[in-house]
Amino acid sequence: MWRMPPKIDRYWEGYITGLSDAKYSYFAIIKACKQRGFVVSKKGISSVLNSCGKRRSGAIPVGKKQADPRPSTSRTPDVIRKVRSLVTGPNPATQRAIATKVGTSVYTVNTIINRDLKLEKRHKSHVHKLLPRHVNERRTNSRKLYERYLAGEKWKYVVTLDEAYVYLSDCNKPRAIFYRPRGTKEFRKWYKECRESFSKGFMLVAGYSYNGKLTLHKVDPKTKVNAAYYQANVLKPIFERDIPALYGGEANQVWIHQDKASSHTAASTRLYMEQMQDETGIHSIPFDDIPVKSPDASPMDFCAFGLLKRALGSRRPRTLSGLWKICQEEWLRIDIGVLRASLLQWKLRCRAIAAMRGYQIEHNRWWRKGFSAAPDHL
Questions:
Q1: What is the pLDDT of residues 268-319, one digit of tens each?
Q2: 132-373 under CATH 3.30.1780.10, yes or no
């Protein structure tokens, strides 16, 4: 069992200090002490010379604390107030610029932000610019969309669809990082270059529901997507083939959700959807109940197309036909369980938009933890 070494009394402290002042080495001091019947180690000698001897010889009076050699703190109430005013705005400056302006160090600014103000850094989300009329419409229509078509078990009978462009540049993406030896300033010619011209690509029309995915539709790059094309090549197969295949005899309970693109809201498209509703029993959600400028309330935008384009990043097609082939493959590979979870999150998002009075919700994800975690100002 290990035991703490005995304390060295003042006699031996003085003896060791005297030998050290006489330029004796540690080995010579150990030998001299051993001859007098006292065993000491190199660590014991070092302790006597560096701390014990100085303290007991009166260099530091007993009961009196040694003055802190560090300068006094710069985190005064006035400095904290200035830093708070500089970091709580919409576009805060860098910590180095704040330190220069306040007249303190970057370390002090960082400590104030994290320890005194208890703030944490977050990246801004990319969102649509909203005008007051957009905010009001989002607030009203998100509530309508949730209450009329998504609440309870209604969400299982909503088919959401949308369009998106895919390009060859979406595939085989270069990594955005590289490694270099630590401590060097070597900059190799490894860049993530922007393309000077648009990459080749085409438009996709896709959709899904609780029961499964719609057939992926490709729009030829040379085709102009107008109301007539949208009705004949997109809506007609969905009404007559895709939805009946997914829902069978329950197709008359299905509601189709789409955004407010011009080809969707055209008068002829509205008449066509009313006609198809009479023929098939499949309904379309009125555009007056769909929020404007709301990719955060569209599952195809915040989930499905993101998953598809992420999967394309690791593929290597060289032609548009190859791109179309792997789009079909990756669309079929997307897990339906993930898509169903996004439909459930759709319900939360609509409620959160209404709770946020129509403003964006991407920068604040409190709603993912439940509405009991809503900010106090709501």
A1: 999 999 999 999 999 999 999 999 999 999 999 999 999 999 999 889 999 9
A2: no
Q: Per-residue pLDDT for 62 more than 60?
A: no
Query: pTM here?
Result: 0.66
Give domain limits for the chain.
10-56, 77-116, 132-373
Cα(36)–Cα(11) distance, rounded to whole angstroms? 12
**Cα–Cα distance between 99 and 87 in angstroms, integer?**
11
Helices (H), the chain: 10-21, 26-35, 42-47, 53-56, 77-87, 95-102, 106-111, 132-145, 227-230, 236-237, 243-247, 262-265, 267-280, 299, 305-312, 320-333, 336-355
User: How many residues does this entry show for the chain?
Assistant: 378
Q: Under 8 Å CB-to-CB from 115, ≥6 apart: which residues?
A: none
- Cα 230 from Cα 232, distance rounded (Å): 6
Token look-up 């998504």 returns: 150
Q: Where does the chain show beta strands of DSSP type E?
A: 158-167, 201-209, 212-213, 217-219, 255-257, 283-284
Give the residues across from 162 on adjacent strands: 206
